Fold this sequence. Notes:
Elements: H1 5-19, H2 25-55, H3 59-67, H4 79-84, H5 91-105, H6 107-110, H7 122-125, H8 128-143, H9 160-179, H10 190-200, E1 207-210, H11 217-224, E2 232-237, H12 240-252, E3 259-262, E4 281-287, H13 336-344, E5 347-358, H14 360-363, H15 366-377, E6 381-386, E7 399-405, E8 413-417, E9 424-427, E10 430-433, H16 435-447, E11 455-458, H17 460-465, H18 487-514
Parallel strand pairs: 1-2, 1-4, 2-3, 4-5, 6-8
Antiparallel strand pairs: 5-7, 6-7, 8-11, 9-10
Amino acid sequence: MGTTKEDIKAALWRGANTFRGIIDAANYKDYVLSMLFVKYLSDTYKEKIEELKEKYSDEIRFERAKSRLEFVLKEDHTFDYLYDNRYASDIGVLINAALRGIEDDNSSQLGGVFRSVDFNSESMLGNPKQKATTLRNLLEDFKSLDLSPSQIETQENQVPSDVLGDAFEYMIGEFASQAGKKAGNFFTPMMVSELMAKIVSPKVNDSIYDPTSGSGSLLIRAAKQAGIDKVAIYGQEMNGSAWSMGRMNMFLHDIHDAKIAWGDSLSNPLHLDSDGNLMQFDAIVANMPFSQDKWAQGFNPGGEASDKKKKEFKMASSNDRFHRFDWGVPPSSKGDWAFLLHMIHSLKEYGRMVAVVPHGVLFRGASEGKIRKKVIDENLLDAVIGLPENLFFGTTIPACLLVFKKNRANQDVLFIDASGENNYEKDKTQNKLTSASIENILEKYNKRESDEKFSHKATKEEIAENDYNLNIPRYVDTFEEEELIDIEQVKTNINNIKNELVDAEAQLSQYLKDIGLEV
Length: 519
């Protein structure tokens, strides 16, 4: 019997339980997922080597074929080597050495992928004895799991990487659920990712970009719309742990050419064209940080502070050589429009994008209001889609999707309110978009249909009359009138209840008399 997705999940849960109570879920995901990745590399490489040995009896041809494998793994960098040495007092040192060796030997694809995890950290894992015990348990948690591609059970139209990648993403979601606020933006719930992917609908040969790529799950789901081997994938992430997860996630999904950069996409965008300008993409998806404070500090490398001689640093459009903020500079305490402007300026001539944003983006004034007006006047905003509350990890507030397109044929903006209770179901502590709701949203979006109490197609004139306020209730009326109360019927019901009570008291009195207990 082969390895199923449930087997992989079970091993991941064993690993999680090994760390439970030792460190927070926000941190132990790095250890558990990294060990799964090492096990995958080890089992896959071992199987490929065995296949080559069977195919080539000639040593020269064998070595030539071996050199063409997608990655290499030395013996002392394998999971089996670490497992055999699991009782070593310096097992943390051995694991770290294996991880660094994997990175060095595969620098083009895996360079830096383990940089956010230290298996020899006493501050994380405790004193030497406790640390050694924990790491030995972790290795034993994964020993029985065979991740050789030939041993992974697949369903129809699946390949082994689908099974492994789906299990990896499932566990990222579970860790995000446990991590609470620390989950931040590294994981977008699957159903929301599915909706966003279908909205941008990437085509064969498209380029897809996520400037806050997190674990890469949203990018992967978008790429699957056209076929992960038929699109070019780009991302950037500033959180080192999330960036590492994203790189592993891509590799496990058999995506070896994704370009995922590490850094701040606002102050230091790393995907540039040959002229040093922002690279532009066909499709962009993003679950960006909500209302990020101090988003502009990266534009002030000198770290100017206020004192008697110096003024406190204030972001200006001239600080950005890419001219992304010429339409307005977002407030320093709320970076939502900073990310949106970055994405708009990263779109190709007929590009489209969808981003998760808090509702404040729709109506806040001052510089954000000016930016919103400019974006609408330029006919870039395509749709506003309100989502239910408590969908995202780390926050219970409702969010919405903003859809933008360049060179749109139509001039209207579609508003959809999918926040009602009939659009979601409870899933553990989170709400979850239903498949029916996703299909309904997509149908209204693609047909650009107005539907009473659900969607409305607003003209630019209508939006201007609302002073460019995009608050969804201004356009979609979801108010349900309560049924009128018949006061006379209520009075009749009360009198009937009183009469029934009198009868019941009389009956009770008779029962008491019958047994000699008069009152």
